[in-house]
Structure formats: C-alpha cells, structure tokens
Sequence to fold (328 residues):
Amino acid sequence: MKAAVYYGVDTFKVEEVPLPRIGEYEVLVRVRACGVCGTDVHKAMHQTVKAGTVLGHEVAGDIIEVGKKVTKFKIGEKVVVPHHTPCFACSYCHHGHHTLCDQYTKTNIDPGGFSEVIRVPQPNVERAMLSFDHVDYEEAAFVEPLACCIHAWERLEVFPGDTVLIVGAGPIGLLHMELAKIHQTEAMVADIKEARLQQVEKMGGIPVQASEMKGVQADIVIVAAGNKNAYELALSSVKRGGQISFFAECPPDSHIAVDPNMIYGKELTLTGSYSSTPRGHWKALTLIRGRNLNVTQLISHRFGLEDLGKAIGMASKADDCLKMMIKP
Ligand SMILES: [Zn+2]
Ligand SMILES: [Zn+2]
Fold:
C-alpha cells in the first residue's frame, strides 16, 4: 500500500509500505479522507517528528478487516478513527484530564492517516472508534478537529450572551466560531488576513482586523493561532473576570510576558486545552450528523497523497486555503 512519508519541513514522498498486520482485537481501515491539521503543519515545519514518520490523524474510512475477537465492528462499516484513547482508569482520567493520561499518546494508529490503510489498536477500537452513517467521509474527518474545539469549550464556563473573541480565522478558529453560535454567544474572530476575515463575515461572525483592534474586549478569548502575538492579544483583550483558552501550540521555546497583577486584579482564568477526548468525538459526530453546523464549507482543497507536501506548505503560510482534505 502507499503512504506519504515525512522527510523534512514540506518534503513528503509517496512510498510503498507494508500493509499493517492486525492482532485479534484490532481492525484495519481503508482511509477515505484525512484532514490536514495545524498540528501536522507544526510537526513538519518545526521538525518535531523523525524522518520516516507518516502524519495524519483526522481519519474517516471503511473497515476492511477485523480481528477474530472484535465484536463491536464489522467489515464494510464506515468509521471515524481516533488516533489516541485514554485508559479511563488513572488519576488523570478520573480528574477529567483524559488527554493527559499516560496511555493516551501511546495508543496511536499505524501508520498515520496520510496512507491508504491503517491499523487501529485495541483500546481505540473498544473505547473510542465510532461508526457513522448519514454523513460523508469528509464531514466525518472533521470529527477530530471539532472534538478538539469541544474539549476547549468544556473547560470554559460559558454564559449565553457572552462575547467570545477567537484569535485566528483558520479552519480551527472558524470551527470555534460555529461552536460559539451553538453556545448562544456572540463570536468575534480576529485575523490579519483579509481573505480569512471575509470568510468570517460570510459565515455570520464578526470579523476583527487583528492589527487595529484597540478597545475590543471579550468575556472569553480563544487563541486559535499558534504564535505569541496571538496570546499577547488575548491577554490585552480579555474583560475583567474573563477566561482565556490556550488552544493553539506555539513554536518550541516561545515565551510571553504576563503581569501577575493583571491575572490577580482582573480575576482571570487561563485554561489549556490539548487534543480531544472520546466524549468530544461523540459530541462532534452528533453535531455534524444533526446538521448543527456545516463543516464542508471549510474545505478549500482536496489532494491525493502525492500533494501532501504542497498542502502542508500552503497551510503553513495560511495562503488562500482553509481545511485541506487528503483523499488517499
Ligand atoms: Zn487535528
Ligand atoms: Zn488514564
């Protein structure tokens, strides 16, 4: 089978790799759509993964083989495949921090989603993989990124009518904007790129030019752009008593200056949000299936495996693109 293998920054080669073999509690999935995520771009551009890695984790596909002891799934079922699964039994899990569980990142799909076929390990099969109908593969591939956003919202205390400022109008910022509407809050989305602000307006949000936003104040600020300017903007635009969601990953060794007296005097709450939980996947699929939000309007490009490097390069520059779908 073929996979797009990472060799550095935006260099990927489509190679013939062995078809994974499954154990008796595992399944094999033919990948039909895998979204390019900001974290794939981050890993490639900052070279935080080794050459030879296959990236991709926003996977929807068909089951083509099931292990002898698998009872929950059948060949031919359409599934959303989570790449990580918590143990649900450790101290982190019991505190509700499922994404911090030691097992979480150890339960990975093999190889990544930018390949024709993946092996899904037992914990993911038993506790997190979801079968779907009534949505197409591309919509299903939005379950993971939407679940990441849902995880952030679950860590905030939201009141209807709150003002929410989302910093960054990329695909993730726009998913947060859709969730803001579902939470009956007023969404402003800040970015420096005019084309992205136009998309915000088209989708019914309030666009804010990030370079000239003096005076903008919000109850909740969600940082959906991985750079320190975005975080500094969040700290200067949160209301007294407000909350900031640290959602986007910055380049390694990033630092921001925080005045402790501001957090003290304004009673701010800062929450981190990393990755997604099985519960978030369930909610995300339910929202997409119920047409509570339209995710396909966020797709700007569709590519085969051979154009993954091009897609990563485009996403890193945020040039005229939103969500890019890889169709192996
Ligand atoms: Zn993702
Ligand atoms: Zn755990």
